[in-house]
Each structure stands twice: as structure tokens, then as C-alpha cells.
Amino acid sequence: MADDDWRLQAQDRCLQGAHLRWETWWPYVGGWDHDHCEFCWVHFCDHVFEDDPNSKLEGFVTDDNYHWICRECFEDFRGRFGFRVEAPEGQPRE
Ligand SMILES: [Zn+2]
Fold it and tell me: Where are the domains of the chain?
């Protein structure tokens, strides 16, 4: 992963070592109809936008339910940011 990857902005502060879990997207505040991936800004929403067939219905979210990360960016940045992922129910934690 290059240091000048276009997706890298100022996520280090809030996402370094972030604890994430895989969730279906829901509005952080009632009335919000979408969020964006913290890195690539792909849409997260509860349906696929007509003008964005790439909209995501699920993704990785931080403990505060505020920051969403798509699977692709998670895979690309997990090493750099040291993301920790909650294991599925009944599974031992990593
Ligand atoms: Zn992304």
C-alpha cells in the first residue's frame, strides 16, 4: 500500500488500531439515508442507490457506530492501521 494512496486522508487519528465489527448499515442519526466509506467514499445505505449500483449494504463499523469501512478498504488498510475485528458469535477472538 503506497503512502500516497488517494484514499489516505486523515484517518490515522480516529482509525488507528480501531476495533471493528461487520454489520448491516443503519443510520447513526435518524433521518440519515447514507454514510460513506472512510477511505474510498463508497456509499453505505439501506438500499442500492439508483445512481450508484456500487452502494454497500454492509460493512465494517467502529465501536462508536460512526465510522464505516468497506470490505475492500478494510483488506487494503488492515495491516497499516492494525484494525482489530470482533470474532463472530461463539468464535474465539483473534
Ligand atoms: Zn472503501
Answer: 20-85
